[in-house]
Amino acid sequence: GADPWLVIGPYADESDLRNLMEYLGGPISSEYGRLRMQNGSPMPWLDVFDRVLVEFVDGESVFGDDLMRSRQVTRMIRILEASPYFAAYKSRFAFVDGMAYEEGLMLSSADHHAGDLVLSIGADRPASLDAILEAFRERIPRMPDRPSGLPLELIRTSGPDPAAAQPTAAEWIEVLMRDMGLLTNAACVDIPWKEGEDDTELALGVAAILSSTAVGEPVPVLTTWAGDPEEEALPLGAHGFRTADRLVLVLACLGDQPILVEPDPAIPLRDAEFTRYAPDGGRTDTEILRRNTRFSLLPGWVCVLSIPRPQEAAP
């Protein structure tokens, strides 16, 4: 279920790109198709994956201004498109502009732009979540030649700010999902590979929640707050995603007190899969619900409800 995300730096030349396309889609009789077979895949990778993302970056600041950055991205896309292996797999490619644009304007022909999201959690934790998203959105460049309102931004990386407080699983998921389907099309989680480290376990938990829920069409989830009427906002993140056979609800407790959640009786929870995740990202338990029921959501916790959608009878 994963899609490869390839990153191409500023020093890649035309031969590098041609060889890449041959490695991805060439027959085993070709030089790089043979290398792919030696590496374990006689079948072209473009037959294995439904989508391949190719991102172009300039981490070394080789290009001096925004126009040069946009032109470089478009030039590299044109080289890939000229490959004899591109036409048959055109629909499987997604080109990603990973440049940082100082003037906030992206003029390349890429399908998406990608940026980084850093979770800087301060003393006022709810306000920090708003500030994190605002800072991320401000870095998204305008794309004047694209229809407005499309979610064309990708969150290339997301992770805690080492100089700030550690986010909970609820806070991390809330930041990633709040913009999903609005400006953001997809999100990634940075996983530091230090086995047993708190950061690693948290990231693995967030990645597990994200990859198992944020699939299909985002749907709005309405919530009502039965608590103190003076309370400014309900400290509950609520997000939904719909596929042909399931409705998935993700609830995240963002406050410092437990929340009693009572699902709408109109949503049938019978046979729904109910999973809880602790603030450190650990999956604690999963059960199959037999009836609609209220439940308590503790601070920092995330719960996932995976609800089967009734299938329409065949005519």
Q: What's this model, at a glance?
A:
With 315 residues, the protein is of the alpha/beta class. The chain is 25% helix and 24% strand. A 6-stranded parallel sheet has the order 1-2-3-4-5-6.
Could you please describe the fold and organization of this structure?
With 315 residues, the chain is α/β, with parallel strands linked by helices. It has helices at 14-25, 31-38, 45-48, 66-81, 125-138, 169-178, 198-213, and strands spanning 5-8, 52-56, 93-97, 112-119, 153-160, 184-187, 217-219, 236-242, 246-253, 259-261, 273-277, 283-288, 295-297, 302-308. The strands form 3 sheets. Strands 1-2-3-4-5-6 form a 6-stranded parallel beta sheet. A 6-stranded antiparallel beta sheet has the order 7-8-9-14-11-12, covered by helices on one side. It has a two-stranded antiparallel sheet with strand order 10-13. α1 packs across α2 and α6 packs across α7 (198-213). The radius of gyration is 22 Å and the shape is globular.
